[in-house]
Each structure stands twice: as structure tokens, then as C-alpha cells.
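Continuing the batch. This is chain 6 of the set; chains 1 through 5 are on the previous pages. Same settings as before, nothing changed between runs. Recording input and output for traceability.
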Amino acid sequence: MERYLQPTDFFDFDNPELKSWISEQLDGVPNDPAAQIRALYLAVRDSINYNPYVFRTDPATFSASYALQSGETYCIPKAVLLGAAARSIGIPSRLGLADVRNHLSSPRLIEWLQSDIFRMHGFIELYLGGRWVKATPAFNRQLCELMKVEPLEFDGVNDSIFQEFTESGRAHMEYVNDHGVFDDVPHGFIVEGIEAAYPHLFSDASGQPATSGSLQTDLG
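Output for chain 6:
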């Protein structure tokens, strides 16, 4: 279990700015693991905007501190940020990866990916109450309102994975392939999987997906 509590280059809760941010989120929160992780979950979910267009292969962009500094990122770094915050208060965490089909996305995003399968969707597992519990802080409240889905809650007890249906009952997301859980970010594995799934994004000389914008702008 000790390896799920250690700081790493990705779960870098020893970063001074990140340490200060965690302390701010927990100010006034009862000294109870469930209450503290709920507060941290909401902070990660809503203060860091979800934006898949900012994906880059640079390992530094996968870290918790980078997610905090950038203010917008995609599911994996947001999960890592929550996991790093959890480790800082003694809650073991590990990164989960899976492929999901997103039934409700922007036409521009689907066109960019040339697929409705989102490869390497990230969530975090937290060891609470003697068992591993899943949490997914990816989609911020404002984005969920634009998508007409309820923001995903987390009570510190039950799995919180995805919104299966929209408010009107339409299918929203489903998991199609499980890649397992990891004590640290498997950077090479993630990048290889994304490059294999979306080779057209890496076809120019930079070797990086070239686009700009945000999902919230697409939907707004």
C-alpha cells in the first residue's frame, strides 16, 4: 500500500504551490478523511476546466502541479491531481484507465478525433473505508450544464464513474475497454495508446496534436 502514498514526478504533492492549494481547500473542513476527500474532489472537478484539446505528449503536462497551474486539462491530469491531494492527507490512490464511448460530445471534437471512442479516459481510485473506491473529477459543473447532464458527485463511499444518461434520458457515456490501474502515470503506455487510436493527430512535423479552443466553447 505504501507505493500508493508516495509523491512522484506526476503525483507531486510535495510541490509548494500544490501543497498550498491543498491546504486552502481543506481550510475549515472537518478532520475526517471522507469529508476532506469530498472537498478535494469538488475543488478538482470545478476549479480545473475539462478541455481535451490541450492534450500534449510532454510528460510534465501529466502532473498534478501542471493541472493546477494550467487551470484546464483533460481527465488524466485531473484524476492525478485528486490522487496527489489524496496522498498528501494519507489516502492511498491509484490511476485507472479505460476507453469510453461518448454519446454526447461536440461535433467538432468528434471530427477532430475521427471517433466517438475516447482512448485512455482517466479516473482515480481511492482507498477509503477498507476498500478501493472510484472517483472521476473530469467534467466541471459549467461543462455539465452545457451538456445537460448532472455534475458527477462523489460521497467518499460509493463509486463515482460517469454519467450514464443525460437529464432527458439519452445515453451519455459507456466504458468499452479497461486498461487497469497504476500506482503512477504510465506515460509511455498512454501516449502509445493515443497515438495508435488517433494517428492523424500526430502526422505533422511537431508530433503533437495541433488545435486550439475548448469543449465549453464548442457547446456554448
